Amino acid sequence: MKPKLTLSGFSLFIFVAIFLLITACTQSGTTVIPLPRIELEQVQIQPEEKLEPGSPPSPQIKRYVIGKGTVDKITYTPGENVKISFSLSNSAPEPVKISPFQPEITINSYSLADKTTYSKTLTTGSHETEIPAGAKATYEIVWDQKYNNGRVAETGWHDVFYKFSYPIKGSPGTGLRALIDRFVIFPAEQAINKVIDANQSVTVKGLPISYIKGETTTDVILTLKKIELTNEGLKIAVLLTSSDYVYNSKDPRNVSQEWIRMAVAEYSFDGVTKSAGPQASNSLPEGMLFEWGKGKYNPLDPVMKGSKEFTFTIASLGDWKGPWQFRVPLN
């Protein structure tokens, strides 16, 4: 005779409680490891400030608690769970109380078409937890790619923020909020992967420019040098040249502020228009190189296969008003 499996009343209670917790997390779109582990590590403890009698305390506020987070990869396919690992390290000479614990995680994506920021707030805890001196608390959460309003996540880049507070002597730390990572939602196999040497130029005449001797005008040439398309995003390079541009070979970073201009630009393909965001500027012997989509913290969205034309528009460069537009066939 096979033995029968039975559950005591207490075991049944525990089983039901765990089942309900998992069900609640799944329905809310957030899967949480409910009991984060506390790891004792060699976290360097900052010594308390020693002052002479009558000396005022240092105006600098020490940040004893450091939050770090990361996603497990850069590119996710639509509908795939996004895994976020997060840790809080305490370098204070005494325990600190974190509230809420686990900290609030927010995922944002801005839609230029809707002029709306879509968000998901992952409130993973509501209580207060004490982290010992020199300890680190770690945990993981999973996002199912649905925003607060139930809308399925947009394709494109998303920002991950955290928020928490920790009152401690000399360091209030109230309402700390920081960007911890970024990732892109896109079907990688459907992204265009190629480099296009566009070399398209636009000449702009009579632009105002100021020097020590006064104001004058200059002519510039804007050249769309290259477009790099990958499944992780898009990179755009534009070179500004002018007969009035002077390159400082001894210190390339020491360039006239007249040439370091913040651009307002956007890109579009097949009717989809997106902001290009801020650009990186680099002084070269031949002119100023402006780059969009350079680095993880200034990403541009990938371009879908089948797109026929790519358009890049610079609306302005500082007080120079455009627009200046470049059109590049993709097929």
Description:
With 331 residues, the protein is mainly beta. It has two domains: 29-46 and 63-185, Immunoglobulin-like, CATH 2.60.40.10; 190-329, Immunoglobulin-like (Sandwich), CATH 2.60.40. It is 6% helix and 50% strand. The protein has one helix and 20 strands. It has one helix at 9-27, and strands at residues 30-32, 37-40, 65-71, 75-76, 82-90, 96-111, 116-122, 127-131, 135-143, 156-165, 176-185, 194-211, 214-230, 233-241, 263-269, 272-275, 280-284, 287-292, 309-317, 320-329. Strands 4, 6, 7, 8, 10 and 11 form a six-stranded mixed β-sheet that branches. Strands 1, 2, 3, 5 and 9 form a five-stranded antiparallel β-sheet that branches. A five-stranded antiparallel β-sheet has the order 12-13-14-18-17, with no helix packed on it. Strand 15 (263-269) and strand 16 form a beta hairpin. The longest helix is centred in the first third of the chain and has 19 residues, at 9-27. It starts with 8 loop residues before the first helix and ends with a strand. The model is unreliable at 1-42 and 55-61 (pLDDT under 50).
